[in-house]
# Entry
Amino acid sequence: MATILDGKKVASDIKNEIAAKVEAIKSKGLRAPNLAIIIVGDDSASHTYVDGKIKACKAVGFDFTLMHFASTISEEKLLKHVDQLNQDEDIDGFIVQLPLPEHISVEKVTDCISPVKDVDGFTNQNFGSINSKNQLILPATPFGIMELLRRYEVDLEGKHCVVVGASRLVGAPISMMMLEDGHATVTVCHKYTPDITQYTKEADILIAAVGKPGLISADMVKEGAVIVDVGTSRVEDKSRKSGFKLVGDVEFDEASKKASYITPVPGGVGPMTIASLLLNTIRAYEKQHSDEITG
Ligand code: GUN
# Structure
C-alpha cells in the first residue's frame, strides 16, 4: 500500500513558515504582503478555488484584494485593471483566475501581468526562466509538486518520469523542472500520443495532469511507481450537500495498491498550489521591499 503524499499537511507546514515570516515583517512596522485576485464571471468551481486562496491569505496574515468582474467585461477593460495592479505599490502580487470567458485572450491578459507580480508564474518571462538558477517565481502547481516530493524525500534522479498532459499550466513546466531540478528522464504524453499506456507502464514517477476522471487505471501503472495526480474534476455525488465530489485522473483505490507513493484528490496537489502561490507572493514582496526588510 502506497504512502500518501499528504499535500494538505505539507501545505499547512509551509503556511506556518510563511505566517512566522509575516509576523517578523509586521514586527518591523512594515505592512503585510498583499495579494490581489481577479476573477471574471460566476463559474462556481473557480469561485471555490478563489475562496480557498483567500482563506489561505487570511491564515498566514496576508492582506488580499478581491476584484470580481462580470463575464461581459471587455478584454480592453480587463487589461486596464491588470495594468492598474501592475502600477499599484500596495499590491505585491496578483493572479487572474482561469478560465476566462471566450472573448478574452488568456495569453494577452497573462502577458500583461508584470513578471515581478506574476505569482502564478504564468507570464512568458517567468515560464521561460523556469530553469534559471535565480528564478524567483515558479509556476505555482509544478513548484508545489516539486516541493511536495522534496519534503517526502522522493528520489527523482535518473528515474523515468512520465507526464500525461502538456498544458502550459502544469504538464509543460513540470516536465522542464523534472528534467533540470529532478535530473529525471522525462517523457511527455499529450492528446496526440496514440497509446499512453505503453509509456505510463514504464513510469517510475507518473504525473497525470489532464482533468479526465479515470484516465489512469491501475493496470496502466508500474509496481512501486510514485503517482502525482493533478487532475481535479467535479463529478456528481448526490450523497453530498454540495451535490458533487472532486476526483483526479487516477483510479485511486486500485492504483494506490501498486504505487509506492500517491497524492490523493482532494488533499494532494491542490493545497500545494495554494501554498506555492503564498510562497511566490512573499518572495515577490521581499524582492520589492528588500531595502525596508533588511534596513
Ligand atoms: N485555474 C485553475 N488553476 C489555476 C491556477 O493555478 N491559477 C489561476 N490563475 N487560475 C487557475
Q: What stands out?
A: The chain has eleven helices and eleven strands.
